[in-house]
Design a protein that fits this description.
20% strand; Spore Coat Polysaccharide Biosynthesis Protein SpsA, Chain A; 12 helices; alpha/beta; 10-stranded mixed β-sheet; single chain; 10 strands
Length: 341
């Protein structure tokens, strides 16, 4: 008999998108699934729309809870899941029809704890029309504790390894390991969860296909939102990534090179936020940039450090090493070199 898959969908204020998301689950070519729709204190009609599906399809279960955030909703789903595998789907995105069929078969054939697959970032305008799409697809492969250090660290690695919604998890690995999402954590909740899981599993597989549609809408995004402790959270994410590479047995030279690159990206992202903050007076911007630069050694931006970077990033890197406050501010404000973070 085919193993049961528990699809966990946290829901908050997505009444305009939830139907498409649920339909993409119920239309899976793989039928042995349960869909746990976790209504996280949502004040809109998302719950009512989910209930309509539950009336006609016994595989849909709608769970209600007080608002506790994305991580708390996912944890409620884990606690109520009956499946042999777990899959997390965001309720304003959708999935391809063969996602579960292909990932379950891949996991079963190779006894995998986690399956990673690619995704498509679809950029919509205000009329919900896709104006641009970009695929992120990992190189295929199967890895165990003995050869995790052979995983290719390409430009997209930290994107596809960090998200929760482009992975199929063996439920036993999650539940027996006691892994949960950190309640109240913002911005890096997926990274914190995944890196804890990935450091403990025995076998990991990558499928060289895109099954997930990650919808980017005109709204406040992670890149421009004013998160509390933004810099500290980004720094924490970089540290988790470096720790993972060490646990996977990568050579120290590779780890140090990746560390330098990751910490520079953290600084770059933080400088962007400061420089583009329209509510922050110029004097305050200079003070905050100066404070950030005081951590340049921790960030790996030592004066003698070298990185292989695109020319625009290299310019910023050189300004950081010279501690040029005005140069950094001007560069971040008037060019597009920090776009896309």
């Amino acid at each position: 008999m085919e193993p049961l898959v528990s699809v966990i969908m946290p829901v908050y204020n997505v009444e305009n998108y939830i139907a498409k998301s649920i339909e993409s689950v119920l239309r899976q070519s793989y039928q042995n699934l349960e869909l746990l729709v976790v209504i996280d204190g949502s004040p809109d009609n998302s719950g009512e729309k989910a209930e309509r599906f539950a009336v006609h399809d016994h595989r849909v279960r709608v769970l209600y809870k007080e608002n506790g955030g994305l991580s708390d909703a996912r944890n409620r789903g884990i606690e109520n899941a009956n499946g042999h595998y777990l899959y997390f789907l965001d309720s304003d995105d959708y999935i391809e029809a063969h996602l579960l069929e292909e990932t379950v078969r891949f996991a079963e054939d190779n006894d995998l704890d986690v399956v990673v697959f690619g995704y498509t970032a679809d950029y919509e305008n205000h009329n919900q029309v896709i104006i641009h799409s970009h695929q992120v697809i990992p190189p295929g492969g199967i890895y165990s504790n003995e050869n995790m250090n052979q995983i290719k660290l390409n430009d997209d690695f930290y994107n596809y390894i960090g998200y929760a919604w482009n992975k199929l998890y063996k439920a036993g690995s999650i539940k027996e390991g006691g892994f949960r999402f950190v309640k109240g954590l913002s911005l890096i909740e997926d990274i914190e969860f995944n890196y804890s899981v990935l450091r403990s599993i025995k076998k990991l597989g990558f499928i060289e296909k895109s099954f997930y549609h990650y919808i980017q809408r005109p709204r406040m995004t992670l890149g421009n939102a004013k998160y509390k402790d933004f810099y500290e959270l980004k720094l924490r994410a970089a540290t988790l990534r470096v720790d993972l590479l060490r646990d996977w047995g990568f050579e120290e030279k590779t780890v140090l090179n990746q560390s330098l690159l990751l910490y520079f990206r953290v600084l770059k992202s933080a400088l962007k936020n400061v420089s583009e903050d329209k509510d922050l007076p110029f004097t305050n911007k200079r003070m905050q940039i100066k404070t950030l630069l005081e951590f340049d050694e921790q960030l790996g931006c030592q004066r003698n450090a070298k990185l292989s970077l695109p020319i625009q990033d290299q310019l910023l890197f050189n300004l950081v090493k010279k501690k040029s406050l005005l140069g950094i501010h001007a560069l971040c404000k008037f060019t597009s070199i920090v776009r896309g973070l």
